[in-house]
């Protein structure tokens, strides 16, 4: 079999530069982005847990920061309390991100709210509480920012005690009540939840999360199987080949969680940002925004 000769280094650099310029050269958002800004960036910035590098993850303070930095989407993680309230926290337990202890599924909303979700990040954020999804939706609605989307990660594990079977319905009910059905991307590692959400409400956009040691063998087939709108892999799984295959199928890619500038540049060099809906999920929306601005 004839092996392809490697591309000369200069051509590789030119190819990368063209890709970066293609992504970065289009209209970007200034640091002083305002909530009313209408022009979307071609490469979207998704603020992971609201912007967990800038404020305590998954708190109202983080979501405010994410909006201040002009993120295109605020990512957040959802669990359900014992009394059926959808709350925004990453872990199934309170221990890491708050000064409390216990499983969210074993506690009522009132019990969950006793604990401080800001102080471990910094004493400057003392007093932050685990928000409900309703509070976050209302915060974004009240901000007047009609452009920003919300990535709602359903941390659903059917075998975990206390997981309600109607998690998806509960989330959907809130979205309908507050008018956010068409402003969210529902994402999950539990792919049947994506399928269920789409069946319940086709207007909800969904993103298929993939992590773990092994990358999915056929990401496009997985996306199709669960009727997802985009593919959202761990950044470890993103290679030139993956980008080419997924983009060729017309499926946007949204890698997570990308905090170093060199890694952001690598992804842009691979073509992330050349298809509408491509995004980078980062704890530091400020870094990505600064990179995009500097490269214009
Ligand atoms: O955006 C996807 C990403 O948030 C998944 O990882 O562990 O931060 O929820 P994790
Ligand atoms: Ca998440």
- Biggest β-sheet strands, sense, barrel: 8 strands, mixed
CATH topology: TIM Barrel
Content-based structural category: alpha/beta
Q: Helix count, per DSSP?
A: 10
Bound molecules: SN-glycerol-3-phosphate, calcium ion
* Percent of residues in beta strands: 5-15%
Tell me the name of the CATH class: Alpha Beta
Q: Give the total of beta strands.
A: 8
As a percent range, the share of helical residues equals 25-40%
H/E element order: HEHEEHHEHEHEHEHHEH
Blueprint (SSEs and pairs):
Elements (H helix, E strand, L loop, with lengths): L8 H16 L19 E4 L12 H9 L4 E8 L5 E3 L20 H4 L20 H11 L5 E6 L12 H12 L5 E5 L2 H10 L4 E6 L8 H7 L4 E4 L6 H9 L12 H10 L8 E4 L2 H10 L2
Parallel strand pairs: 1-2, 1-8, 2-4, 4-5, 5-6, 6-7
Antiparallel strand pairs: 2-3
The structure holds SN-glycerol-3-phosphate and calcium ion.
SN-glycerol-3-phosphate (G3P) binds next to strand 2.
How would you describe this protein?
The N terminus is likely disordered. The relative contact order is 0.15. The protein is built from ten helices and eight strands. It has about 300 residues and is of the alpha/beta class.
């Amino acid at each position: 079999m004839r092996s392809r000769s490697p591309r000369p280094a200069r051509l590789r650099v030119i190819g990368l530069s063209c890709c970066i310029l293609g992504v970065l050269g289009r209209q970007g958002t200034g640091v002083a982005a305002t909530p009313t800004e209408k022009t979307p960036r071609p490469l979207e910035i998704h603020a992971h847990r609201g912007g967990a590098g800038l404020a305590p993850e998954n708190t109202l303070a983080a979501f405010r920061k994410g909006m201040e930095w002009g993120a295109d989407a605020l990512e957040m993680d959802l669990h359900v309390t014992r009394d059926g309230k959808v709350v925004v926290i990453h872990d199934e337990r309170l221990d890491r991100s708050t000064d409390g202890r216990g499983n969210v599924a074993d506690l009522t909303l009132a019990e969950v709210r006793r604990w401080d979700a800001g102080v471990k990040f910094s004493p400057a954020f003392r007093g932050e509480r685990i928000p409900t999804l309703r509070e976050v939706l209302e915060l974004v609605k009240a901000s007047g920012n009609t452009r920003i989307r919300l990535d709602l990660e359903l941390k659903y594990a059917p075998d975990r005690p206390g997981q309600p079977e109607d998690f998806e319905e509960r989330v959907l009910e809130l979205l309908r009540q507050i008018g956010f059905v068409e402003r969210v991307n529902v994402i999950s590692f539990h792919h049947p939840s994506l399928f269920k959400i789409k069946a319940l409400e086709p207007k909800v956009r969904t993103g298929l999360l993939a992590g773990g040691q092994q990358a999915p063998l056929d990401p496009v087939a997985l996306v199709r199987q669960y009727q997802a709108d985009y593919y959202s892999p761990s950044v470890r799984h993103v290679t030139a080949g993956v980008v080419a295959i997924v983009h060729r199928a017309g499926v946007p890619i949204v890698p997570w969680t990308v905090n170093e500038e060199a890694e952001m540049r690598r992804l842009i060099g691979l073509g992330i940002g050349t298809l509408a809906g491509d995004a980078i999920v980062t704890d530091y929306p400020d870094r990505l925004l600064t990179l995009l601005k500097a490269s214009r």
